[in-house]
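Sample A.
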Amino acid sequence: METYYLETDLEKIKTLSILREDENEKFRRYLKNRSVHKTDLLVHQINDQVAPRIDCTACGNCCKELSPYLNKEDLHQLAEATRKSIEDVIAAYTEKDEEGLSFNQMPCVFLAENKCTIYQHRPETCHSFPHLHKPEFTSRLRRVMDNYAICPIIFNVIERMKVEMGFE
């Protein structure tokens, strides 16, 4: 397995994401025209190399910048973790918009020292973030590219994909 440098400095990632905005939009369009299956294989391969090398607890940026949508099971898990009723969880920690319920505070109220204080009971979206292991990567490109500036894993996977695919 080839080892390569990974960028983890959040300020640098944020700056680079601004500088590479046009390039990333071109890359997103480029990926839309590629084989879904081949793209998934490459994303999964690179993600399997990158993700274990990045310590999410040294970052916690997703919990500071994003708010997951919550499903019924998430609400049950939160109720169990907080020892509150689902109604109290909804009242204390959530807000509703046209897409559903999400946390009402950022950074996440359950984040302490870049660690999730309800880790075993965290919402499914949090559990599977940054979602690069899932199939049909190209169907989620807009969201992935929105998170490029936020998540070092996404940033490094996308940058590595550009190299592997010979994108210019």
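Sample B, a different protein:
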Amino acid sequence: MTDQAQYVAAFSTAAENVGSRVVSFPDLEQALKYLAQHAGGTIMLPDFPSGQRHGLAERLEQAGLEVVSSDLREAGQSALAGLTGVNFALADTGTLVLESTDEDIRLATTLPERHFALLDPQKILADSLVAVAPMRAMHQRDSRNYIAYITGPSRTADIERVLTIGVHGPKELHILLVPGFSDDLLEM
């Protein structure tokens, strides 16, 4: 087994252990079919480079889905799903890392009940130590950016340790592994 295959396996296990659903697809077309079956309603689709390159808005609309790509603050009140790319992921914790300075990225990852994240398996790194170089590159590009670390669906607990899922964000996190989606760690 190659190192990258080991990272994918470790990432999948860690992400599933914290409540994420990790699904591998042979291509983007199959991932979009999955998304159409599981979105449950309107999809918030913020603007991100790999999404534009693959024509996600048009392809989702062709699949019969209602896609909202503008005025996401308003759409967040009714959209049931958000779709984003991922800059990279950490195998040891099952964490997604997203450069989310654009408010629409933050809205799509926090307001809907379901967050779908498209991740090229080549972007899964061993751990946070390996992530130092791409993190530095992100901060050199824009020193005032937001970086989101997403590990599983939203969860919170009260003082009595009663765990509740989805209070401060999505109840479901679907990580869609799609080879060839984008292997650039600085591109979402």
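Observation for Sample B: The longest helix spans residues 3-17.
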